[in-house]
């Protein structure tokens, strides 16, 4: 990342400055969030387009599991439609392991 790129990065969740009203921060069940209504071109999002995009994406989920000699990392490719089902397997201890990382995988032909 070049110095110019670093200057363009905005930390949306940094602590508020003293000039900013703390009440203006938004939270959902204790988690901070930012509401985005328009894309980078200034156009409002379209529900159908966002849903079509999401259905084509996958998530690479890294799970740490103990084995005989230590721990291993297992990477799973999970489609959007199965994401919550997969995570619930670990939430309700139906599968052993600990979710370490989740990253979105966008197929190249999607761009």
**Strand segment count:** 5
Give the SSE order as H and E letters.
Answer: HEEHEEHE
The major beta sheet can be summarized as:
3 strands, antiparallel
Kindly report the spatial arrangement of strands forming the biggest sheet: 4-3-5
Helicity level? 10-25%
- Return Rg in Å: 19 Å
Shape: extended
Beta-strand portion reads: 25-35%
Ends distance: 22 Å
Count of runs of 4 or more consecutive helical residues: 3
Class per helix and strand makeup: alpha+beta
Overall mean pLDDT stands at 81
Residue windows where pLDDT falls under 50 for at least 5 positions: 18-23
Give a quick summary of the entry:
This protein is an alpha+beta fold and 111 residues long. The protein has three helices and five strands.
Describe this structure in words.
The protein has 111 residues and is of the alpha+beta class. It has helices at 3-8, 47-56, 83-91; strands spanning 26-28, 31-33, 58-67, 70-79, 98-105. A 3-stranded antiparallel β-sheet has the order 4-3-5. Strands 1-2 form a two-stranded antiparallel ribbon. Mean pLDDT is 81; it is low at 18-23.
Which keywords apply here?
three-stranded antiparallel sheet; 5 strands; alpha+beta; 111 residues; two-stranded antiparallel ribbon; extended
Question: What's the SSE blueprint?
Answer:
Layout: H1 3-8, E1 26-28, E2 31-33, H2 47-56, E3 58-67, E4 70-79, H3 83-91, E5 98-105
